[in-house]
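Record Site-specific DNA-methyltransferase, 43 aa.
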Amino acid sequence: ELKDKFIKLLKDFGINKDKEKIDDSVLKTLSSLRPYKEENKGK
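=>
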């Protein structure tokens, strides 16, 4: 399941060159992996 998430992330990187969309995808993936997503959002 984690592998699927990262594969989707890689596709997002390839398809969405928009930095905000990439950052959002990263945050969504991190949020499912790490409980302290809110701290990461502050960066």
